[in-house]
Amino acid sequence: MLLTDYLERNARLWGMDTALVEINPSEERDQATTWREFNLIEMANPDAPYRREISWRDFDRRANRFANLLLSRGIARGTKVAILMMNCLEWLPIYFGILKAGCIAVPMNFRYSSDEIKYCLELADVEVLVFGPEFISRMDAIEQELDGLRFMFFVGKNGPAYAEDCMRLTTYCSSSAPPVLLKDDDYAAIYFSSGTTGFPKAILHNHRALAHACEVEQAHHGQTKDDVFLCIPPLYHTGAKMHWFGSLHCGGKAVLLRGVKPEWILRAVNDERCTIVWLLVPWAQDMLDAIDSGRVNLDDYATEQWRLMHIGAQPVPPSLINRWLKVFPNHQYDTNYGLSESIGPGCVHLGVENVHKVGAIGKPGHNWEAKIVSPDGVEVAQGDVGELIVRGDGVMLCYYKNEEATNEVLRGGWLYTGDMARMDEDGFIFLVDRKKDVVISGGENLYPVQIEDFMRAFDKIKDVAVIGLPHPRLGEIAAAIVEIKEGVTCTEEEINAFCEGMPRYKRPRRVIFDKVPRNPTGKIEKPVLRERYCKGSLVEAQITG
Q1: DSSP 101
Q2: Which residue has the higher pLDDT, 315 or 61?
Q3: Cα 237 from Cα 258, distance rounded (Å)
Q4: 3-class DSSP state of 526
Q5: Nearest alpha carbon to residue 236 among 368, 339, 106
Q6: What is the DSSP string of 453-522?
Q7: What is the CA radius of gyration of the chain?
Q8: How confident is the model at residue 315 (pLDDT cuts 50, 70, 90)?
Q9: Where exactly are the structural domains of the chain?
């Protein structure tokens, strides 16, 4: 089945059942009222979060209307249509409308600056852009420079003059499925890499890859019609959307929560009876800290139906999961590994039955292959460190318009992930670090993830990132940027004393107290830290330890 087939099946079998709920806990009342034309449902308590929902039938009809809007404008099959919107009830119907029209969906990172938006639109040859109110000022700055755009549609009220009112226009379009025949090999979506080495690369996937991700997610987490999935991460990223595909597969309800405060997450779990929650590392840490401090009382929330918490998108410290399972002893836990180049999470998968292997990313996922190889592509011995490579239907077709970069990572059908890993005697894969993040100090390879995992076990540390700082004699030294928990005091001496539990060569030679920056998908922004600290006086500063 194609992804669009699942939606049409759900509309046919469970048309009146709730498909999507949007909750806006921080929305001001005067702002929220601007959504009334789009079926805003207010809760009985006027001070409660604002809530909207749509059924599977309405979801499918909205997707059809947007597809027919595109076709009515002469938008041809294969045209790239970009989405620049925050998570909202309109996001997924627009995405599916693009697919149903035979076009290529191009989700855009909501943190992009005007220059990055322009770069990505031009890189992907986008001809149609759909954007929301949060991006008006950024679009104002570049709208006259976007020669390749044929149409701009605005989702919201009081849009700019250069964009058309998407919701008004779609009300005049047919809600019947457009007469477009889709095939597995048709191009479906372009996602952008996280851009940690410069401007993002455009990752091209076909419909087979999207359907494969849907099957993988349901196989891993066993979603049923009765499950309710709480989705918090941004939908432009493969991770959030592909985990939601489990709900699409079984026709279950999903909740889009626009906010990450621990109280908001637990309130959504309580009110919507959520059974599955996908978190990023910082949010799980914040929830545990709020519970430990007494700011959040778990007894105030109904959580007995919550069966699964899973984490992905970045290395997961075992200390965090061990701590989580003490607070939530009845939860299943899982982690999935993946890249946008492998259509998001699942190419390596821990499995809820393997909680005793916390710290591993797991084994090859459903219908995936994986192995660890040396620089010349030969599989390394068990226990040795090498590069993780994966193969399956979810591997990208290419980096769009970048043959050189494509050839660097796609070899013989295998995707070279750039992640260094090792495999234990039971066949479980453990991430060691990104190839580009390895610190080589005095000829020794230091893997920051290993150091970070060790340091996060210190109860005063909220977050930590290890980077290499240039050094005239050793080449590089390991520096730990340490973020301390709120309301806690900690000294460099305490950090160094705790690190004595590591082999001497692994201990960070410099400790810097600062906030650890993470992107919207939870990954540490190490290029930001390198830019901040790999300069002048800091490089020459006295080395600790």
Answers
A1: T
A2: 61
A3: 15
A4: helix
A5: 106
A6: HHHTTSTTEEEEEEEEEEETTTEEEEEEEEEEPTT----HHHHHHHGGGS-GGGS-SEEEE----B-TTS
A7: 24
A8: low
A9: 3-229, 438-540
Q: Which amino acid is at 101?
A: A
Tell me which CATH code domain 3-229 carries. Answer: 3.40.50.12780
Q: In what order do the strands lie in the sheet with 461-471?
A: 461-471, 475-484, 510-513
The whole-angstrom separation of Cα 319 and Cα 326 is 11
Tokens of 380: 């390394």
Residue 255 to residue 474: CA distance in whole angstroms: 51
pLDDT by residue (tens digit) across 48-62? Answer: 348 999 999 999 999
Q: Is the pLDDT of residue 45 over 60?
A: no
CA dist 135 and 236 (Å) reads: 14
Please state, in angstroms and rounded to a whole number, the distance separating the CA atoms of residues 106 and 123: 11
Q: How confident is the model at residue 418 (pLDDT cuts 50, 70, 90)?
A: confident
**Which H helix or E strand runs over 136?**
helix 136-140
Model confidence, pTM: 0.82
Answer CATH for 438-540 from 3.30.450.40, 3.30.470.20, 3.40.50.880, 3.30.300.30: 3.30.300.30
Q: Which residues contact 489 (CB under 8 A, 6 or more apart)?
A: none
Helix (H) or strand (E) holding 410: strand 410-411
Of 257, 390, 258, nearest to 336 (Cα)?
Answer: 390
Q: Is the dihedral of CA 153, 102, 343, 197 positive or negative?
A: negative
538, two tokens = 């800091």
Closest CA to 520 of 138, 217, 118, 238: 238
Give tens-digit pLDDT for 355-410: 889 889 999 999 999 999 999 899 999 999 899 999 999 999 999 999 999 999 99
**CB–CB of 475/466 below 8 Å?**
no
* Segment 287-310 mean pLDDT: 94
Rounded CA gap, 323 and 186, in Å?
45
Tokens of 72: 């009515």
Helix (H, G, I), strand (E, B) or coil at 194: coil
Q: Are strands 202-206 and 187-192 parallel, antiparallel or unpaired?
A: antiparallel
For 502, how many CA atoms within 13 A lie in the half-sphere containing its CB? 24
Name the 3-class secondary structure at 388: strand
Show the 3-state SS of 195-253: CCCCCCCEEEEEHHHHHHHHHHHHHHHCCCCCCEEEECCCCCCHHHHHHHHHHHHHCCE
